Amino acid sequence: MSNNELVRKGNIGEYKIISELLTRGWNVYKNTCDDNGVDLVIEKHNDYKKIQIKVSTKTNSSMGHERYVFRLGNTGVQSDFYICVMPNNISVIPADNINSNKGFLIYPNAKRGRDKSFSKRFLNRWDLLDTIINENKEAAADLKKDDPLYMRKEE
Most buried by CB count within 10 Å: which residue of 19, 87, 98, 102? Predict the structure, then answer.
Protein backbone atom coordinates (compact mmCIF):
# COMPACT_ATOMS: atom_id res chain seq x y z
CA MET A 1 0.00 0.00 0.00
CA SER A 2 1.45 3.35 -1.01
CA ASN A 3 1.94 6.21 1.44
CA ASN A 4 -0.91 8.13 -0.23
CA GLU A 5 -3.23 5.15 0.28
CA LEU A 6 -2.22 4.91 3.95
CA VAL A 7 -2.88 8.61 4.50
CA ARG A 8 -6.24 8.30 2.75
CA LYS A 9 -7.21 5.30 4.88
CA GLY A 10 -6.21 7.19 8.03
CA ASN A 11 -8.22 10.27 7.00
CA ILE A 12 -11.31 8.15 6.29
CA GLY A 13 -11.00 6.56 9.74
CA GLU A 14 -10.55 9.93 11.45
CA TYR A 15 -13.59 11.48 9.81
CA LYS A 16 -15.68 8.39 10.61
CA ILE A 17 -14.78 8.86 14.30
CA ILE A 18 -15.30 12.64 14.19
CA SER A 19 -18.80 12.07 12.79
CA GLU A 20 -19.61 9.56 15.51
CA LEU A 21 -18.31 11.83 18.29
CA LEU A 22 -20.32 14.80 16.99
CA THR A 23 -23.43 12.62 16.86
CA ARG A 24 -22.81 11.65 20.50
CA GLY A 25 -22.71 15.30 21.61
CA TRP A 26 -18.96 15.89 21.84
CA ASN A 27 -17.29 19.07 20.57
CA VAL A 28 -14.39 17.92 18.40
CA TYR A 29 -11.13 19.79 17.79
CA LYS A 30 -8.87 18.29 15.13
CA ASN A 31 -5.13 18.65 15.46
CA THR A 32 -3.75 20.26 12.31
CA CYS A 33 -0.24 18.88 12.85
CA ASP A 34 -0.26 15.34 14.22
CA ASP A 35 3.28 15.14 15.51
CA ASN A 36 2.55 14.62 19.19
CA GLY A 37 0.29 11.55 19.24
CA VAL A 38 -2.99 13.41 19.69
CA ASP A 39 -5.36 13.41 16.71
CA LEU A 40 -8.34 15.04 18.40
CA VAL A 41 -9.27 16.88 21.55
CA ILE A 42 -12.89 16.34 22.48
CA GLU A 43 -15.00 18.25 25.00
CA LYS A 44 -18.36 17.72 26.63
CA HIS A 45 -19.60 19.49 29.78
CA ASN A 46 -16.18 21.12 30.21
CA ASP A 47 -14.48 17.69 30.29
CA TYR A 48 -11.61 17.47 27.78
CA LYS A 49 -10.01 14.28 26.47
CA LYS A 50 -7.09 13.65 24.12
CA ILE A 51 -7.82 11.04 21.46
CA GLN A 52 -5.48 9.02 19.26
CA ILE A 53 -7.21 7.34 16.32
CA LYS A 54 -5.64 4.18 14.97
CA VAL A 55 -6.77 2.55 11.73
CA SER A 56 -5.84 -0.96 10.66
CA THR A 57 -6.64 -3.52 8.03
CA LYS A 58 -7.03 -7.22 8.59
CA THR A 59 -4.08 -9.55 8.85
CA ASN A 60 -4.12 -13.18 9.87
CA SER A 61 -2.21 -14.66 12.77
CA SER A 62 -0.04 -17.74 12.32
CA MET A 63 -3.09 -19.73 13.52
CA GLY A 64 -5.29 -18.14 10.83
CA HIS A 65 -7.28 -15.91 13.18
CA GLU A 66 -8.43 -12.49 11.97
CA ARG A 67 -6.41 -9.81 13.72
CA TYR A 68 -5.58 -6.14 13.49
CA VAL A 69 -2.19 -4.66 14.33
CA PHE A 70 -2.11 -1.16 15.80
CA ARG A 71 1.30 0.48 15.97
CA LEU A 72 2.09 3.26 18.40
CA GLY A 73 4.79 5.88 18.08
CA ASN A 74 6.94 7.11 20.93
CA THR A 75 5.63 10.67 20.94
CA GLY A 76 6.11 11.55 24.59
CA VAL A 77 2.47 12.72 24.79
CA GLN A 78 -0.08 10.22 25.94
CA SER A 79 -3.64 10.36 24.74
CA ASP A 80 -6.44 9.60 27.17
CA PHE A 81 -8.07 7.16 24.74
CA TYR A 82 -7.22 5.16 21.66
CA ILE A 83 -10.08 4.71 19.23
CA CYS A 84 -9.26 1.80 16.95
CA VAL A 85 -10.98 1.61 13.58
CA MET A 86 -11.37 -1.72 11.80
CA PRO A 87 -13.53 -2.34 8.71
CA ASN A 88 -16.51 -3.64 10.72
CA ASN A 89 -15.69 -2.66 14.30
CA ILE A 90 -14.59 0.22 16.47
CA SER A 91 -12.93 -0.20 19.85
CA VAL A 92 -12.66 2.59 22.42
CA ILE A 93 -9.74 1.85 24.74
CA PRO A 94 -8.61 3.94 27.72
CA ALA A 95 -4.87 4.61 27.30
CA ASP A 96 -4.12 3.19 30.74
CA ASN A 97 -5.03 -0.22 29.32
CA ILE A 98 -2.28 -0.22 26.72
CA ASN A 99 0.85 -1.66 28.28
CA SER A 100 3.11 -1.44 25.25
CA ASN A 101 4.62 1.64 23.66
CA LYS A 102 5.14 -0.22 20.36
CA GLY A 103 1.66 -1.44 19.61
CA PHE A 104 -1.00 -4.01 20.29
CA LEU A 105 -3.21 -6.58 18.59
CA ILE A 106 -6.99 -6.89 18.40
CA TYR A 107 -8.80 -10.14 17.59
CA PRO A 108 -12.43 -8.97 17.14
CA ASN A 109 -13.93 -12.35 16.23
CA ALA A 110 -12.29 -14.50 18.87
CA LYS A 111 -14.58 -17.24 20.11
CA ARG A 112 -12.98 -17.91 23.49
CA GLY A 113 -10.27 -17.01 25.96
CA ARG A 114 -8.60 -13.68 26.48
CA ASP A 115 -9.18 -12.53 22.90
CA LYS A 116 -12.96 -12.84 23.35
CA SER A 117 -12.70 -10.99 26.65
CA PHE A 118 -11.08 -8.08 24.82
CA SER A 119 -13.90 -7.87 22.28
CA LYS A 120 -16.53 -7.70 24.97
CA ARG A 121 -14.60 -5.15 26.99
CA PHE A 122 -13.89 -2.42 24.43
CA LEU A 123 -15.96 -3.05 21.33
CA ASN A 124 -18.16 0.02 20.69
CA ARG A 125 -17.60 1.21 24.28
CA TRP A 126 -18.35 4.87 23.55
CA ASP A 127 -19.65 5.14 27.13
CA LEU A 128 -16.07 4.98 28.40
CA LEU A 129 -15.49 8.46 26.98
CA ASP A 130 -18.15 9.78 29.34
CA THR A 131 -16.11 8.94 32.43
CA ILE A 132 -14.61 12.13 33.83
CA ILE A 133 -10.89 11.50 33.95
CA ASN A 134 -9.92 14.18 36.44
CA GLU A 135 -12.75 13.52 38.89
CA ASN A 136 -13.58 9.83 38.50
CA LYS A 137 -10.68 7.53 37.70
CA GLU A 138 -12.45 4.59 39.31
CA ALA A 139 -14.40 3.74 36.15
CA ALA A 140 -11.16 3.45 34.18
CA ALA A 141 -9.49 1.58 37.06
CA ASP A 142 -11.88 -1.32 36.45
CA LEU A 143 -10.04 -1.79 33.16
CA LYS A 144 -6.52 -1.43 34.53
CA LYS A 145 -3.56 -2.37 32.35
CA ASP A 146 -2.37 -5.05 34.78
CA ASP A 147 -5.39 -7.14 33.72
CA PRO A 148 -3.91 -8.90 30.66
CA LEU A 149 -7.14 -10.66 29.64
CA TYR A 150 -7.77 -8.48 26.65
CA MET A 151 -4.51 -6.96 25.49
CA ARG A 152 -1.43 -8.54 23.99
CA LYS A 153 1.84 -6.89 23.30
CA GLU A 154 2.63 -6.73 19.63
CA GLU A 155 4.24 -9.96 18.50
Answer: 98
